Amino acid sequence: MKYWKGIEELENAPEFMQSAFAEFMPVKESHASTDATSAPRRDFLKLMGFGVAAATLASCETPVRKAIPYLNKPEEVDPAISNFYASTYFNGADYNAVLVKSRDGRPIKLEGNPESPITNGGLSARAQAAVLSLYDGGRLQHFAVKSGNGHQQIEPAVLDRTVRAKLAATTGRIAIVSPTIISPTTKRAIAEFAARYPNTTHVMYDAQSVTGLLQANGGVVPSYNFSRANIIVSLGADFLGTWISPVEYSRQYAMTRKISRDKRSMSRHYQFETAMTLTGSNADIRVPVKPSEMGAAAVALYNAVTGAGGASAYKNDKLTQAAKDLNANRGASLVVSGSNDPAVQALVASINQALGNVGTTVDLAAPSYVRQGDDARMTALVNDMNNGSVGAVIFYNANPVYNHPLGQKVKSGIAKVPLTISLNDRLDETGMLCQYAAPDSHWLESWNDYEPKRGFLSLGQPVITPLFATRQGQETLLRWAGNNTGYYQYLRATWRALTPTDAAWDKVVHDGVATGTALAPAPAMTAAALSPAAAVDQIGRAAKPAANAIEVTLYEKVGLGAAGCESNNPFLQELPDPVSKATWGNYVAVPRKMAVDNQWEQGDVIKVTANGYSLELPVLIQPGQTNGTVSIALGYGRTLAGKAGDQVGANAAPLATATANGLMYHNVVTLAKTEAKSPIAQTQTHHTIMDRKSVVQENTLAQYIKNPKEVTEYEKVATPDGLEKPSKVSLWQDYQYNNHHWGMAVDLNSCIGCGSCVIGCQTENNIAVVGKQEVINRREMHWMRIDRYYSSDHHKDEFETVGKVGTYTAMEDPSDNPQVIFQPMMCQQCNHAPCETVCPVLATTHSSEGLNQMTYNRCIGTRYCANNCPYKVRRFNWFSYYSNEKFETVNGHMFTDLGRMVLNPDVTVRARGVMEKCSFCIQRIQLGKLEAKKQKRRPMDGEIVSACAQSCPTEAIVFGDMRDPNSRLSQLLRREDGERAFHALESINVQPNVTYLTKIRNAESEFFAKENA
Amino acid sequence: MNSIRLRSLPHLLLALFLTFAGTQQAAAQDAGATATVKKEGVVPGATDGATAATAVAPAAGGGDAAAIAAGDALFKTNCAQCHAVNEVIVGPALSGITKRRPVSWLLPWIKNSSKLVASGDEYAVAIYNKYNKQQMPSFALSDTEINSILAWVTAEEGKSANVAGAGVTAGNAAATDGQADAGGAEAGAGKYVDILLIVLVVVLIVLVVTLVIIGNLMKDVLRGRKDLDGRDVEILEQRFDWGKMYRSPALRGIVGVVFALVLLYEGVQSVMAIGLTQGYQPTQPIAFSHKLHAGEHQINCAYCHTSVYKSKSANIPSANICMNCHSQIKTESPEIKKIYRAIERKQPIQWVRIHNLPDLAYFNHSQHTQVAGLQCQTCHGPIQNMEVVYQYSALTMGWCINCHREMPVNAKDNKYYDNLVKLHNTKNAGAPFTVSSNGGTECSKCHY
């Protein structure tokens, strides 16, 4: 099998081949003085002379530093000791129970709360990065009132008085617009506001609406339990990446994917989708489907499963196979759909009903509340605003001007509403148009409660005093309702019934989660659920686009989300898309065939037009994209997000179709090439050193069941004594590890490629954000990357029939629907590390605990180590990312005192000219060891984990001490030795301390059969 | 005769000088000895009151003397900040406490006084009100431990009764044992040496003058004699040829080389000293004296630097810690008024940081104090003698590494090290299990 890393490699384009083996792209520097004409030698000498003199003078005086203690030290806060507080992250889409790591009173990192029965200690990439948003200087720092084109500061009391008077005088309807709110107490506060101003209605809408799903299930999202499903069929639901509750589902999904000698079974996952999503790339069987065919596909599946008969326009043998599998696993299967079409969702609900999945994998008794938006209500409000019947509108963390497909109508509507107020955290696209701004505090500065699922409660507590003169939105609404209670008291009162005693309350605050219910049932949907027959009928009657029409599907990015509320978070902007590996901006993902037919090249800017709206974005050739379709990500193209988020990509929300049945995130578009080119900043297609056999391995479940010892190919090297394991032949002396021997195992079977580890690593280790141009220059700094490999359907054993050249050509032929494999790649901490031998100054050395140490203050930046690293995991500091003004917009958090509060004080901020790389989170290892020493014991297994292992929602990464025979890692390695455990590039015998476990696919595939023959 | 006298004079002078030098050194040694005594007085190893106490407690049952000794240690770690036997400090004097109150009342009071006050106990409320409603903190001491403290207090009462007239409290006397004498000796010796030195200088000047006069006199006498031959006259009249010496290439060479060497040495020294702040002794915003607090009053280091045993940072005490005592003691002092002012204005006190490690080096206090069991003085020097704190150690990497190379790991009773020590000893019998043999000189132990 041959893996290729991108279209360029597949095509062997000459430009690509030229740079394929260079780790760094040759860059024409416009900011450095390498050019002889711009900096002649004499100037250099002059400057150097001055520099030396200046340095000498500067070093004459040591600056006086202050040590400033508390005036009155809180008892539980000790300098340099981190405290963890339980809290909750919910931004209107993604629910995560978190532990906030607070150091000297500053939140510096978020980790998953293991107490939570929903997220179980997992944390999404989005939540990992959320701590950075607290220190976002782009937030509105005071209450403001509109004057002219801008806003000017106003005293909260003055604003309260004015707004109260105006609200009281309002005759028309008052609307509070917000994303989904799952907080019982916030809802209570809104209800109290509504009681004071009886014309008030609360309108919730979701940036990625699931109204269809809500409608089909009586106004709620059913709880799904993927862990009990043997067969998973998803009709376009990206449930591992973005759909409803990805962290929860990922964990459940991974439970069905973990296998061992004793459990040789795993779920089979069918995915029918348009764009290549994270979920699709993990599927065993993936079928590309056009958005307009999705309804017919649902009908076909419904017919096949229930035997209802009837014809469907959609025919696919994989679908038939899926239906067969589903029927064979009644009660242990699950069908989900990401469509917002109520008819499709009605059919999906009926399929699950027919399969007897309700009560096993589908739980209607404890539904999820994380989506409550009703498209019809929001559309009605937009119309009302425009026809002048709305007297006042309050936007509560909602930015519909930007993220609602009817944004332009919202904008014109706001102009017609007499009183407009924004509680948004910044003067964003919507807030800027409002007369008053009463910014909400950040969730890390606020008290709140949450009920993500009926019966499951979660609490948010402030970990820092509000940084700016902001006020919690709930408190603002209560003030206007004439209730001057502080929100904490108000919240405590809500909880009085659940936690009558202070001790019980303290326990909930401590744990962060509780059981019990406090949320009133969701309001009924405007439209009733459809019967299956009506649904089939409705789908049949739906207008079909012409066969050659190009359809667009709008999707949500795993990192950034659809609402755009995290747009100013540079960590998420630079988080590579799990599949395309693109950063900083959206693009038009097109299938290869379309690009070839239209002679588009990657980076060509094309104009996409629909609904009378057009946008221009570069083309990205995406294997797996359904023919005749393109896809564009939502959540980009902000104009008032802040320094990092503004003017990145284009806003695709207006391309969505508003129908009578709700918003559809697909449409028919016309594409036109423009003359412009705009390079896409991808993190992969370079590092091609990895493109060798035995880097990443996979096999089929059938083979694993037959013999687990034959799923991994172990390379042998030729010696005088015959073929031997590479480790038998070595020039090196082996190290002896007496104390600890740190190691890591990555199960490729349960790694879904979500990128949570990448952000976890970035926050833990103060890794700089470098911005789009530097990513294009191949200088991103992530210590941990997730390599994504596509596979092709051809194999070397065709040499005899097709010939070598023919086979290679065929192998290079892009398959329309490739299989995808993810491989987290970080420093392998080699025992025979090639980097160590080439360092001229011993800046990288081996430790007695098996770690490959990088000493920044010794490094002189020869970069020999990076050149000699077979895994290409070393990162060089080309600039002072913390002080070079070129990086101020993207890496702003290292520039200001405000932003620097997020840095981890235990990790050095690396200077220009030094190499850096994954350290196995040495600071966490040292801390864990110290705690053990203080308590006069050995460290316990699981006590010391790297940030990536800690953040992995699927527990694919296991970190531990290989010297401890009882550690989880040692047990795992013993069990998998000779079966799935392998080292990347084993033949070069660098003896990494990172072990991978072969990926097993539950699919009968022809090329696997050949491979195993 | 004359010449003999002249020749013996330098010897005499040398002998004199040596004698003085000897005296001086002895005085210095005296001072040094006091330092060591005092150092032992502030052993921070005893800070972990609970552990020290539990270690001592079982012995308390053994006999009266043992109980009193245990009580002494417990009193110093737990009570001495606020109580003395015969003197009111923050809380009441403890003399006669067992006569005033029954032990059955004292036990719950010491364990949790606020509970007793809250319960409305008449005596408890009275004492609480009498001492400005200053809450006595609760102590997690066992009954045996409290009893041994009481035994010690009773024993001290007896002692102090004997010296009561002198007006020196027993506790203070114990704390300053010998220190005053030593201090006096030090001061006395210093004065003595000064006087001797002055006398010596005067004597020397007189001698030199005398010698010059004698030399001139003798030259005059010789010039007066006519029986001298030419050679004698030449010798008598010869003058030193400075010009010749100036022109001498050998001398020029030697001087040149010495000069170059000195320059080089100084240059290297000054370059190496860039960024070195050993001896740095900035003026602090409040004239806090470690000599007074840690030295004379024997206040445990960790009483103020609360996190030194548990955290990376040995925190600078917050103003509320000062107020634990200074809400009562020396409230009129202008320096302490500065603390009051800071609290009133809600402006934290901005101390000048003395020990500045570069950010690239990670140092953890608790690793060195709690795990390694080092004394504060090992790195911070005779802190208990410092009126104004200065940086005692160089804090260079070489200084760290040297210690890591030489210092044996404190592996006793620490299960973390058990197996490591065994492995080490089987391989290198005899060699100490130093920090560096456990990987303590590897880069990423301190740099990450």
TrEMBL record, chain A:
Q: Which Pfam families match?
A: Fer4_11
| Taxonomic superkingdom | Bacteria
InterPro entries reported in the protein's UniProt record: 4Fe4S_Fe-S-bd (IPR017896), TAT_signal (IPR006311), TAT_var_transloc_signal_dom (IPR030948)
- Domain 4Fe-4S ferredoxin-type: where? 742-772, 850-879
Q: What is this protein called?
A: Molybdopterin oxidoreductase
What is the species listed in this Swiss-Prot or TrEMBL entry?
Answer: Hymenobacter lapidarius
Ranked from the top, the taxonomy reads: Bacteria, Pseudomonadati, Bacteroidota, Cytophagia, Cytophagales
